[in-house]
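Reopening this one. Same input as before:
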Amino acid sequence: MIKRSCFFLHILLLSLCFPNTFSAAENTTPSGIPIEELEEFVDDYAEEYIGNTVAGAVIIAIKDNQIVLSKGYGFSDIENQIPMDPEITVLEWGSIAKLFVWVSAMQLAEQGELDLEEDIRSYLPEDFLTKLNFDEQPITMLNLMHHNAGFEEYIFDLLFDSPEHLVSLEESLKLAEPKQVYKPGKVVAYSNYSTSLAAYIIEGITGQPFYEYVDEHIFEELGMNHSTMHLPVEDNQDIALHKGKGYLTGDSANFTESQPFYISMYPSGGINGTAIDLAEFVQALMPPESENTSLFQEKGTLFELFSTSYSPKEGVPGLAHGFWEYDGEYRGLMHGGNTVAYSSNMQIVPEDQFAIIVLTNQADETDLSIGLIDELVGRGDQAVQENLPPASDVEGSYLTARRTYDGFMNLYAYLAPLHVEPINDNEIELDLAGFKATYMQTSPYVYKLKSGNDIFIQNNVMYFHVNDGEAEQISTVYADYVSMDKSKSFLLVSLVLFIWSVVYFLISPFVLIVLAFFRRRRKNKTTAAAKWNWAVMLSGTALAVNIALLIVRMLANPMRAYSELFLHFIGTYCFTITSLISLVMVIIYWKKAPLSKWQKGGYLLTCISSILFIAWLFIWQMYS
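Same output, byte for byte:
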């Protein structure tokens, strides 16, 4: 006992004699960058991207509950050369807003008003959810937090280009209810609907609109006076006056200003605010050890909030009550956000009392919001175990679980599958829409990012669920992947059939014009079979044009109200019916008209092409 006391006394004396030696070791970012060099490091890093790929950004770093960096880069308004300012510039936080839902839920759980493991239907009006397919396994608030309630992706009626389209949270949830396609708890598929549904449950418990609850219990409590969750933002003149303009992705240094967009399911991404306000929220989540946070009554609630509540496998990052875990030098908790023209990301590292916030006014930005944060928080342990299974076990193509299953949008997932190929026994290459990365296996079927495009950083750990030597599912941050459910040959045949149908029926009108010209010169009469064959051709042309316009419109702006596409679906049904009637009439008049071999061949080709095209439309659900 005496020896131990002498030892600690010796350490204490050393620390008093050499205080800087001991404090300097701790005064770094998790990745090891000294705090006194942090601003220079961030300046050098940002210089490569600001004005080239990013219009503007605000960056705040927090260490030991103190802001050690708060700086703006680039412009909030390029045309008027208004610089970014962390304390003044208002930006869209995107899905970071979801964290305010989960903190609110934990507040109510702490008060005994909400049971995280209770069937959510006990908090909802009767028959509120109409598309559930797994009644034997109820959805809980934890499932909503973990994004594994089983909902498919539904992109319609989420964003609007005018505040006139905004509806209440309740109405938006009813309008955009997705189908439940997975059993609760089985598959993680990032879900805006789940978060907004959780906020609606909070509304029911508290008896006040969710944005009012957040204003009272979070914004006002923390002094976040320059942020709002209430839309439209134009209703708040101070917020609207200082809001930075958003810019769309374009060529290097070519920034196109975006039109405003509005979201009815605002709890999933509707906050507009300053970076310094977000820093207030982050600081409240990481209070000094001797203090309690003003967000909760009990310190244990914050500890519970940050505890792992879902993980696909022990040691693999999962979720902590809505916060995504990150495998860094220390365990990180993060959440990013993207709106139409803004990107954001924040990560806290409670163990190291460090946090980093990046807000940008650039669509789909990753260099700062992901790449810089990765540099500051570092990567986790890359130690490799021995006797690992061969990488060939996980080879294959996978589809994101966050996708549409019903309707024509189901096609999109098949256009950009995730391809996994072994490089050697212990390394794989991932290819997602042309973006590539190399992963290394560190423990059985757990692969960690070695190098690659920045879009893979947030998924820096992947766990492959292997059954009988075949990988069935990949667990990643934000959305799992499931095995491809269609063969390569089927997809190839489908692609060839689509190209053939579109080309054939787009060329058909010109063929008809040429044939009509020669027929008129020869003064030949047009038979009934020929007229109905023309009807088949023109109906096919109308179908092809209608589908092409639908695809182009969705590629130009995937965030549309479903009502905007209604005419396309009406047209598809009408042109299909016309095609089928015309096909029947061609068959009826086939035997009655004296047809040459060329005519018979041409009519047969048109009829077969029409039937195959309609079959393709049914297979890919182009009628809804």
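So the earlier flakiness isn't reproducible anymore. For the record, The chain has a mean pLDDT of 90.
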